[in-house]
Each structure stands twice: as structure tokens, then as C-alpha cells.
Amino acid sequence: MTSQPSKVSFIEFVSLMALLTAMTALSTDAVLPALGDIGHDINIIESNNNQLIISLLFAGMALGQIIYGPLSDTIGRKSSIYIGISIFIIGCIFSIFSSDLTTMLIGRFLQGLGAASTRIVTMALIRDRYEGREMARVMSFIMTVFIFVPAVAPAFGEGMLFLWEWQAIFVSFLVIATLAFLWFGLRQEETLPRSARVPFSLRHIYRGVKETCLNRTAFSYTIVTGIVFGAFLGYLSSAQQIFQDAYRTGEAFALYFGLLSIAIGFASLLNARLVMHYGMRRISGHALIAITVVSILFFIFAWMHHGLPPFYSFMLYGFVTFFCMGLLFGNLNTMAMEPLGHIAGIGAAVVGSLSTFISIPLGVLIGRFYEGTILPLVAGFALLGLFASFIFRYASLSDMRSVHVEESA
């Protein structure tokens, strides 16, 4: 049952929301095959600095997430998305015409800052229009697209490189964003009436941050989410160097990257069934232990092969690890949000923003240690998996004590 009538059909609405949501994944993964070319053309001397082109995008997203949620409650959903897409387009222009690393990083930061609006506000917009099973149905379709995009985005980037140089990738982002802006502006009506809007308040944001940080359960699971995503960001940052430089996969990089992305998507879909039988905490705990143990064992195996074990073994390790990641992402966010139901809007923004801010330095650190082998990446997964497991255990024990106290009362 829809909460509001609309001139936009169900199919068109889902397609539009999927396009807006997919902009985030596309702007991350489509650039990966071009990192080497970009670094050469804008005179990046240290190849590991190419990784900052990925990291600064997430820095912009981290800041944007905590802004757009409250902003959309004040000025409406449409105006917030207009602002975000406009900033994204400006960032694309910076990247297209960049001739040095600083200009490129400014462009990427602005792209992340803008893309955060489509990631955050679309969720609020969907909730405005749908509820209950209809909302779950919409989210299922959108998540399918969101999972599919990372698998094909590097191939899309390779296609742009085949047609032109790396600037074509950012031109394609600009074109897609412009079309989304026009489609959204012409067809989608505002879903938040003026009577339901609230004044924008930095104090409100501060209270949301404070409450999240003071709630042991929410804060602990937010930290775990950030640590896990930090390991994944380390992979994203160094994937191009590992596949194309270390293993010399060439243009097949997009294929292999897509295969590992499918592991995350498959796990995310399977988790929807498993979680009903085994619960979020049990699945997440086992997934963290699996990542840690498999990474420790594979690190020893890789070290015995001088840091570059057979490629098939790396792909097998990646598939197992990213399958576990797919089980974790949705569950950890849900568990972090459980105690924040009374401040769900600002709570989601804070959890998303804080976890991303935690992940960025961890991902950058893993990437900076790249030295031509996979050892830094695998060690990063092992150490961060172990650290996350300890914090997860602490959070789970805290949950159990809270339940015991409630039952005693």
C-alpha cells in the first residue's frame, strides 16, 4: 500500500530510484581501470597516490551523508537531490579538466559529496511514498541494481577507455547525472509536504552524533562496520595495481573484479533467507571469524610464494572473503540502527557517516603499504578482521546484558 498517490508508475519510480542510487557505485568502480592512465597524465610520481582518487570520493560521501538527511527534512527531498547532483556535476567538470593531483582530488571529493545525496535522500523519498511490504519490494529491486552495478562498472570504464581517454569516464558520469537530474525534476513530485518539514539544526545533528556515540551497542557496531569497510576500501584502492600490475590481467581486470563483486551480491541476497533462521549476530560473528582465519592462512600461503601466489588461489580467497563481506554489510548496519529507532533519520546518517570516516584512514593505510604483492592487503583483512571480531564480541555481550536486564525488570 502506497502512502501517497503519484503520477509516476511503479516501474518508472523504481527505475529512477535505481539510477540515482547506482550513481554512487558507478562513480567508485568505473574509474578503477583508468587509475594508471590518470596517474600518468596528471604526473603522479608515486603510483600509490593513485589510490587517493578512490579515497577522496568516500571522504566526500562521509561528510555528505550526515548533511543531506537533516537537510532533506528541512527543504524537501527534491531540492536536496537537486543540490547533490549539481555538486556531483561540478566535481565531474573538475576531474575532466584536471592536470594535477590536487584538482583531481577536489573533483573526486565533490563527486562524493554530491553522490551522498542520491544515496541518503532516495531512501527517505522511498519511505515517504511506500511502507510495509511495498517498501520492501521497492528496496529489493533497487538493491539488485546496486549489487549489479559494481560487477559491470569496471567493464563500463574499460569501454570508455576504448572509445577515448580516461576523461570519457567522467564525461559519462556528467551525462548520466544530467539525465537523472532532468528525469527526476520533470517526473518525480515532492514527497515531503511543507507541513511535515522541520528546521535545519546543527544542534539536532550534534545530539544524534552524541547519542549514537554514547550508546554502546550502536557505537560498537558502527565501529565494526567502519573497520570491515576499511578493509574493503583498501581492496578498492589497490585492486587496479594488484590485478593489472602484479598479476598482469590487462583488460581482463574488469572481468575478474566483477566476479568478486558477484560474491558480495550473492551473499547479500542469500543473507535475506539465512537471517530469518540464524539471526544477524550469529551470521555476522561467524563471517568475521571466517574472514580472519582464512586471511591468516592465506597470508602464510602467499608469503611462501613470495607475496604472489597463483592467481586462481587469490581469486578463490577473494571469493570466500567477499562472500563473508556480503553477509556482514547489511547485518552490521541493521544492528547499529536497532537502538536508534527513535532517531532513525539522523541515526542512519550518523552511522553511515561515522563508519565511512573510520574506514577511510584504514583503507588508505592498507593501500599505502602496497609494494607489488598481495601481502599488505591480506594482512589488512586478517588484522582488521581480528580487531573487528573483538569489538563485535564486546557489542554482543553488551546486547545480552541489556536483554537480561530488561527480562529481569
Give an overview of the whole structure.
The chain has 409 residues and is mainly α. It has two domains: 7-186, Up-down Bundle (Growth Hormone, Chain: A), CATH 1.20.1250.20; 201-409, Growth Hormone, Chain: A. The protein is built from 14 helices and no strands. The chain has helices spanning 10-29, 35-41, 52-75, 77-96, 101-129, 132-163, 167-187, 202-214, 216-246, 253-278, 280-304, 311-337, 344-368, 375-408. Helix 3 (52-75) packs parallel to helix 5. 49% of the residues are buried.
Features:
single chain; 409 residues; mainly alpha; Growth Hormone, Chain: A; 2 domains; globular; disordered C terminus
Topology:
Blueprint: H1 10-29, H2 35-41, H3 52-75, H4 77-96, H5 101-129, H6 132-163, H7 167-187, H8 202-214, H9 216-246, H10 253-278, H11 280-304, H12 311-337, H13 344-368, H14 375-408
Helix pairs in contact: 1-5, 1-6, 1-7, 3-4, 3-5, 3-13, 4-5, 4-7, 6-7, 6-10, 8-13, 9-12, 9-13, 9-14, 10-11, 10-12, 11-12, 11-14
Structural class: mainly alpha
CATH architecture of the largest domain: Up-down Bundle
The overall pLDDT, averaged over residues, is 86
CATH superfamily of the largest domain: MFS general substrate transporter like domains
Strand content: under 5%
**Rg for CA atoms:** 21 Å
| CATH fold assignment of the largest domain | Growth Hormone, Chain: A
**Elements, N to C (H/E):** HHHHHHHHHHHHHH
Largest sheet composition: none
CATH class of the largest domain: Mainly Alpha
Q: Spans of 5+ residues with little confidence (pLDDT < 50)?
A: 403-409
Distance between the termini: 38 Å
Report the total helices: 14
**Bulk shape:** globular
How many domains, in number, for the residues?
Answer: 2
- Please count the beta strands (DSSP E, at least 2 residues each): 0
Task: Give helix % range.
Answer: over 70%
